[in-house]
Amino acid sequence: MSDTNGGTDVASSDPAADAAAVFDLLIGLVRAQVLRGVAALHIADHLSDGALTAGEVAEREGSHPQATYRLMRAASSLGLLSHEGEQRFALTGRGRLLRSDVPGSLRSLVLAQTGSAHWRSWGHFPEAVRQGESQTKQALGMDVFEYFGQPENAEEAALFAQAMGDMSSLVTQGAVAAVSTAGVSTVVDVGGSNGDFVLALMEANPQLNGQVLDLAHVVDGARAEAEKRGLSDRFSTVAGDFFVEVPPADLHLLKTILHDWDDAQCTTILRHCRDAVNEGGRALVVEMVIGEIGQPDAAALSDMAMLTMTNGMERDLDAFDALFSASGWRRSKTYPVGGGYFGMELVAI
User: What is the reported pLDDT for 12?
Assistant: First the structure.
């Protein structure tokens, strides 16, 4: 394809290949719902002890045999299951990630991301771009965090909380290995949900006392997780709002918090941490970081989810530094922690 001014060829294109590529992008919505079906029907759990026929899975789950076979066939085409012949299927490595209650499980994440709150909100995505802000209030009647706080949405809220904990496992090991807690006595996990991050730090350092600050309907899960890990004697929770106040600590953790909020809100959160940090203390921000424009970038795609579900955004390092400077912090270290996330250590200025 040449430009109209007689220039040289600036963009070759194969229309058939381009159409196939766009169709492949579009079919992503079907892939997402196949993932949801496999997770919701506990197919990976049913296959955990070995291959079964679709009919056997349907009998265990109480689902329609032919429809179950069709779902499992589609899941096999995505590499979630392997077909063993005669309508028998077994789990692959990808499929094992959809099992319940196993290390590294992504089942709750799949169910949360393809569930009612997210799916309904994505239906308003073009308008979010037109208006420059999330349309969850139009989709759900309230913002997504209010939605999860409603008693009738407790099951979906629990899935979301579990999903955030499961995502934590993708980065927690790397973050725990990278950040030094020498000389640190108290750690507050700001908006820490089930407390996976701070609890992992406490397991690595038996001298640490940890705390989770989160909304009232969330902190019970953090207390339960601490008890499950045998850490209750060094752990506490605060039901509160990080836009109002943050408890004092030697180290404040903000893992995947800032991307939920706009710049002014992030500055408020960070300033509250700055006001509460003990002398010589630090903060650790864990987020995706947008890279070079035009290159494959999960953070740039995640930014679209932030636009859809919240009024937040993913940011590049320059944008993060502007937030840190405006709230009394300076970025002192940056390092990858796994799963496409980076740790950014902050010192007070």
Answer: 64
Coil, strand or helix: which one is 172?
Answer: helix
Provide CATH code, domain 15-101.
Answer: 1.10.10.10
Contacting residues for 84 by C-beta, under 8 A, at least 6 apart: 51, 90
- The model's pTM: 0.82
Nearest to 175 by CA among 325, 8, 23, 334: 334
Strand pairing category for 329-338 and 341-348: antiparallel
The stretches in the chain having pLDDT less than 70 are 1-12
Residue showing tokens 């679709």: 54
Query: Please, which residues have CB within 8 angstroms of residue 286's CB and are 6 or more apart in sequence?
Result: 171, 175, 197, 253, 254, 255, 256, 337, 341, 342, 343, 344
Q: Which CATH class is domain 171-292+309-348?
A: alpha beta
Residue 348 backbone phi and psi in degrees, to 5: -70, 145
Task: Decide if 41 contacts 63 (C-beta within 8 A).
Answer: yes
CB 140 within 8 A of CB 120: yes
Output the pLDDT for position 2.
36
Beta bridge partners of residue 213, listed in sequence order: 190, 238
Q: Are strands 235-239 and 249-255 parallel, antiparallel or unpaired?
A: unpaired
User: If we measure between CA atoms, which residue out of 253, 252, 255, 270 comes closest to residue 321?
Assistant: 270
Q: For residue 61, list its beta bridge partners.
A: none
Q: Is 57 in contact with 14 (CB distance < 8 Å)?
A: no
Residue 11's pLDDT is what? 58
Residue limits of CATH 1.10.10.10 in the chain: 15-101
Q: Strand pairing of 88-91 and 81-85?
A: antiparallel
Q: According to CATH, where is 3.40.50.150 located in the chain?
A: 171-292+309-348
Torsion over CA: 20, 25, 26, 27 (sign): positive
